[in-house]
Amino acid sequence: MDKEQVAEILVSIGTLLELKGENPFKTRAYLNAARSLETSNESLGRLVAENRLGEIKGIGEALQKKITELVQTGKLAYYEELKASVPPGLLEMLDIPGLGPKKIKALHDELGIQSVEQLELACKEDKVAALRGFGAKTQANLLEGIQRRRLYASKHLLDDALRTAEPLLDNLRLHPDVIRCSAAGSLRRHREIIGDIDLLVSARNPAGIIDYFTTQPGVLNVLAKGQTKASVLLEGGIQSDLRVVSDREFPFALMYFTGSKEHNIVLRQRAIDRGLRLNEYGLFRSKEETRDPKLLVPCRTEEDIFRELGLHDIPPEMREDMGEIVLAEKEPLPRLVQWSDLKGSLHNHSTWSDGHQTLEQIAASMVELGLSYWAITDHSKSSFQANGLDAARVRKQIQEIRDLNRRLADEGARFRLFTGSEVDILKEGKLDFPDDLLAELDVVVASAHQRLAESEAETTKRLIRAAENPWVHMLGHLTGRLLLEREPYKVDQRAVIDACAETGTWIELNASPMRFDMDWRQWPYARSKGVKCVINCDAHRFEHAGFLRLGAGIARKGWLTKEDVINTLPLPKLLQELKRKRARVKS
Fold first, then answer.
1. How many Cβ atoms are within 10 Å of 149's Cβ, its own excluded?
2. What is the pLDDT of residues 15-28, one digit of tens each?
3. What is the value of pTM for the model shown?
4. How many other CB atoms sit within 10 Å of the CB of residue 31?
């Protein structure tokens, strides 16, 4: 087991102990050990092999034995016994927003609740509101959370779907009978939430491909299986549907199954207007629905199909019937931003607040990835739950980052770590830090983390006032949504966009797969107003740098080009842009 896997199990142990009501010091010991492991610069395997785990702060003799057992065997008997001692329904309840281990234990102790279903019944019978520490509002929120969980049960985050689909596609490409293969549906269109994973293959032996697909690693159950179609249930609860077609049919099937439905309707009508018929089998010279190969208009690619319909090529991400077809009639669509255009991220966290890596670890990792810059924007003091920094800690961090940048320059690294803060937007738009401190930072992201139940007017006013602050470069995660978990707070996004256009403030496209906020549907309007986008990872771990790829896909859905995105700029030009808004203060 690697360091991340071991840390994850230690956190799970801490959660299980809290559910059982164990001594809080014992619970905290596992959480602290997980954090210490993640921030250690040394290889976990080497520490175990050399019996040096005890050198890591917070890891005593008992934890050393458990971690060693995990690393050497991949299992931990203590963990398995602990899991077995806790009703599985209690763990499921952790997925409900607003329910942590302490509240779940109280529900179990006071009302004997052991499952989500029992919790729902108790809420409906008004039993939960009477418990100390709950109340009527909490009870109502729990019911809403349960209903939302049920509603989203068959929905999945884009990141999870991509991570599941890519190995399947890689394996299909290895099959000797496969000619072409691709993802289709909402996954190919890069929607933020997807239902099933749709895959399409052209092949010489469809039945053989179907057999191969249904026996892939990760397939839990075969739901349906025919000569050219199959549906399977995969690990993680995602369903995947595969269709196998001839290579002649492939571009037409790919266009059809990519969608969207609304986009396809417009295309089919466009074909009819030209005396043609378009369906999943081909584009035909016919006034009636047909599959007659003699009437087929030969097309090797989707681009060929668009051309036959008098259109320039439309990227899959844009196929949502939001004006893309009208645009593609007139001229080639603009080159949309690519993830490889991005030079870094301007909203990220370190161990100074709630991140999992040190400044040195972050810098080394981003240099290795070939990025040009990375901003450390740890939380401000009001985000106490995220170990937010006060002014003294911010200034100490500024100095450490400056020292680190000097060392990097001496080593010849063409990379810069920016100082910064994700500063909380407080009541009436006041910021958590004074202007003189914000002025010392390279990058300032202003985000709302509290007072999320305010009216639309109040929230909008708060965000606009934050945008008007000359030291704020950008607004972070504009609506505060957590996909499949929490609805966005009420805000007039267009009014905020207008204010950002007026003040020269950027808006973040938070590329965390749980956020993708600001929503892609708002970016064409923001672009029309001249508001720049910043695709940020909001990284808390090394692997979150991969969110740049996800964010670029969402930006493409919003029709954004390289020129619309601030963090495509090389370092010297970015430095100029960071100074631009602040120059207004001096003038």
1. 17
2. 999 998 888 888 88
3. 0.87
4. 18
